[in-house]
Amino acid sequence: MKKLGLTCLVAGIAFAMTAVVATAKDVVVGGKNFTEQQIMAEMTSQLLRAKGFTVDKRDGLGTAPLRQAQEAGQIDVYWEYTGTSLITFNKITDKLDANATYAKVKELDAAKGLVWLNPSKANNTYAIAMRKDDASAKGISTLSELASKIGGGDIITFGCNAEFYARADGLKPLEQAYGFEFGRENVKRMDTGLVYQALRDSQIDTALVFATDGRVPAFNFVVLKDDKGYFPDYALTPVIRKEVLDGSPELTEILNGLSAKLDDATMAKLNASVDVDKRTVEDVATEFLKSQGMI
What is the pLDDT of residue 4? Predict the structure, then answer.
């Protein structure tokens, strides 16, 4: 009877340990509601499944709800941008370079139980773009040159989404930093996706774009150099809850390995595969991971 009791006890302990391991291998992967984020959520999910994790993918979320869900323990890992955490989540308005931005968000978010792993070389910052031929004809390659043209009397129209038009680190502060003003009548507000089409179709002269958007090279745009460093760095980085990382420390190596494969050109190509070539996010993610020998 005692032997049976001991056997049951050992079996119970073994079952409990197995349950702990299984729980540690369950990961909820989050993502935002635009192409680059959908690709990263899918790649992360496929990679973790290949490494033996059970993955629950929850993408298509807005920035604020996604962050709130992670802080509440409902999302374990997703790819965030350093500038977003600096400005939006931590309300830091100081102008910091890329390394200082990463160090600051890593420090501040650690107090919230979040770990920033290695940043990728993909910097999906805001940028101002023009059609390449038009920029060449006008002699504009930097934002200072754009400001000089407008200050000299050239009428140049600008397209952006409503958020950038109104936000505290958006259009007005940009104009103040470079000492120019498009003029209210020359600013066209529209949905983000329509901005690219409007610039391509010559309905506007300049546009707000994301630096790693695949439509920038696909539509033959040129990004004007931010020569005064107005826009903060938005390095794409895996962010994970410390509790989850403590339970599965191997996630550090896995996610850092993927981060090391990413840069601006790579993300632009991946994004273009979906937005321009109309391939599925799943196929694009699988092809990339296989090409890198990761799955």
Answer: 42
CA angle 65, 263, 135 (to 5 degrees): 95
Q: Report the mean per-residue pLDDT for the chain.
A: 91
What contacts 53, CB < 8 A, 6 or more positions away?
Answer: 25, 26, 27, 248
CATH at 238: 3.40.190.10
**Nearest residue to 282 (alpha-carbon basis) of 293, 295, 200:** 295
Q: Does the predicted model carry a pTM greater than 0.90?
A: no
Say how far apart CA 145 and CA 180 lie, in whole Å. Answer: 11
For residue range 199-252, what is the model confidence (pLDDT) as tens digits? 999 999 999 999 999 999 999 999 999 999 898 899 999 999 999 999 999 999
Handedness of CA 30, 32, 38, 43 (dihedral sign): negative
Lowest-confidence region among 9-18, 63-72, 104-113:
9-18
Give domain status of residue 276, yes or no.
Answer: yes
* DSSP state at residue 184: G
Alpha carbon of residue 100 to chain centroid = 18
Both tokens of 64, joined, read: 């604020």
Per-residue pLDDT at 168:
67
Instruction: Tell me the per-residue pLDDT of 172-189, one tens digit each, with 9 for 90 and over.
Output: 999 999 999 999 999 999
Q: Does residue 77 lie in a domain region? A: yes
- Sign of torsion over alpha carbons 180, 186, 188, 189: positive
Q: Is residue 171 in some structural domain?
A: yes
CATH number at residue 136: 3.40.190.120
> Is 198 found in the same domain as 157?
yes
Q: How far is CA 76 from CA 37, 70, 143, in A?
A: 15, 6, 39
Which pLDDT value is given to residue 24? Answer: 54
**Residue 263 three-state SS:** strand
